[in-house]
Amino acid sequence: MDFLSYFFMDFVGQLQSPTLAFLLGGMIIAALGSKLEIPDAIYKFIVFMLLIRVGLSGGIAIRNGNLVEMLLPALFSVVMGILIVFIGRYTLAKLPNVQTVDAIATAGLFGAVSGSTMAAALTVLETQGIEYEPWAGALYPFMDIPALVTAIVVASIYTSSKKRDAAGDELSKEEYLSKQEYLSKQSVAAGEYGSQPQYPTSRQEYRSQQRITASGYPSKQREGVKIWPIVKESLEGSALSALLLGLALGLITRPESVYESFYDPLFRGLLSILMLIMGMEAWSRVAELRKVAQWYVVYAVVAPLVHGLIAFGLGMIAHYATGFSLGGVVILAVIAASSSDISGPPTLRAGIPSANPSAYIGASTAIGTPIAIGVGIPLYIAIAHALMGG
């Protein structure tokens, strides 16, 4: 009963909080046909301010903290980023009317991290007085980059495999036709072939001439998936660039004065505006989501909660092993439940161009983000409250 009471109290509180209230407000005015528009330049500025603030706080905390304590949570972040992609690859991709490449891209976006959702969780934790490691926000890139890289690599391997299968089928047809053409041109006497046959005398010789491998495909080397360009593109994205810049400044310099007087006071106000923008964007994506299979809706509702619970379990291992705070466990769960809304979409558009953006962006923005913020944050905080109460 304690858990349920904590959950409902936090859920109601979250509904009344500026974070979710502005998100729902944006969806409502968009549904009513409002012409309200926030210039893209302002949106990018707000995202920059929020993420550089998170990076600054994380950098300051790392400089003053114990790096050894970060190792296990950072490792679990990497594991979650990769695991989420494979969960989607072997669950969502197996459902009816779901294209495998679209499913992989969707899983990659859900494995990557939403800076706004993380910022919302930090705000709630601070409001409720739940302690967490200030460097917990720096776990962002440890989950975000592996998820995007894994999704693009898995999608590239899948599409390459499909192309090889198609090429193998075409090659088999060509081999059959060339053999028939050869036989039609040979002079045959008394049931025997010509005295100087040029056709291969053994299967091995034939394979050698045709450059066929044991698997039945041409032995011509294919270009492999290049990992570094994917990592480089992720690092150059606006979200991670701002976060890593703030992290570096917090580590190397002494930005406490400007952090406390400028970035920190503006944090909650800017976050509320970002939630309003995301709400309007989410509603606009609902129409796109209708164009793809309904299974994306089911996935977008269930996946954030499942991913968060798995991460919460891993965080509890770190809690008992290294003293990782329950607030830090909540943050790990929230970033696992979130789906990237800033750096992920452009990275996946470039890395998996064959995937349908209506599927992965629609599922993430229209459903995944509201679920992660409105249900996920209260759920994980309620579990943390129950454990603290125990």
Description:
By secondary structure, the protein is mostly helical. 76% of the residues lie in helices and 0% in strands.
Keywords:
390 residues; mainly alpha; 76% helix
Summarize the helices and strands and which ones pair or pack.
Layout: H1 2-16, H2 18-31, H3 40-64, H4 67-89, H5 100-111, H6 115-127, H7 140-185, H8 203-210, H9 227-236, H10 238-252, H11 256-289, H12 295-322, H13 326-337, H14 344-351, H15 357-389
Helix pairs in contact: 1-15, 2-11, 3-10, 3-11, 4-5, 4-7, 4-12, 5-7, 5-15, 6-11, 6-13, 6-15, 7-9, 7-14, 11-15, 12-13, 12-15, 13-15
Gyration radius, to the nearest Å? 26 Å
Helix-strand sequence = HHHHHHHHHHHHHHH
Note the overall shape: globular
**Helix and strand composition category:** mainly alpha
- Give the number of DSSP strands: 0
How large is the count of helical segments?
15
Arithmetic mean pLDDT: 79
| Binned strand content | under 5%
Biggest sheet architecture: none
The parts where pLDDT drops under 50 for at least 5 residues are 187-197, 211-215
**What distance separates the N and C termini?**
12 Å
Helix content: over 70%
Please give a quick description of this structure.
By secondary structure, the chain is mainly α.
